[in-house]
Amino acid sequence: MTIEELIDLQEAGSRARVLGLKAHENPYLEAHRIPIGDTSALGDWLARHDAWKFGWEAEHASREGRIATHVKELISFSKRPAFGA
Fold first, then answer.
1. What's the pLDDT score for residue 70?
2. CB-CB contact of 24 with 67 (8 Å)
3. Which of 28, 32, 72, 73 lies 20 to 30 Å from 79 when distance is taken between CA atoms?
4. How many CB atoms lie within 10 A of CB 17?
5. b/e for 37-76, b at 16 or more Cβ within 10 A?
6. Three-state secondary structure string covering the chain
7. What is the pLDDT of residue 81?
8. How far apart are CA 2 and CA 72, in angstroms?
9. Residue-wise pLDDT tens for the chain (85 aa)?
10. Is the torsion defined by CA of 15, 18, 23, 27 positive or negative?
11. CB-CB neighbours of 32 under 10 Å
12. What predicted TM-score, i.e. pTM, was given to this entire model?
């Protein structure tokens, strides 16, 4: 996935929140989009799912007036040690 695709997916998630969609309406949760039996496609699917979700969550936090808290949570999460490390 290119950086442009990543940004487009984040914007799509944000637009979905603006339009009133719920987080569970992430299009990457649709059964036909979830890779089954293809482990090489799983990473790409997860990145796309997470990019859309990030855009949705950022817009949601901004609408609730808690964008600063949302960003702090993201930063603290990224500072955690890797699983199994």
1. 67
2. no
3. 28
4. 20
5. eeeeeeeeeeebbbbbbbbbbbbbbeeeeeeeebeeeeee
6. CCHHHHHHHHHHHHHHHHCCCCHHHCHHHCHHHCCCCCHHHHHHHHHHHHHHHHHHHHHHHHHCCCHHHHHHHHHHHHCCCCCCC
7. 67
8. 26
9. 899 999 999 999 999 999 999 999 999 999 999 998 888 899 999 999 999 999 999 999 887 776 667 677 777 766 666 655 5
10. negative
11. 4
12. 0.74
Query: Tokens at residue 83, please?
Result: 């699983």
Residue 61 to residue 81: CA distance in whole angstroms:
25
Residue found under tokens 């036909």? 32
User: What are the structure tokens assigned to 61, written together?
Assistant: 């936090």
**Tokens 């990019």 map to which residue?**
51
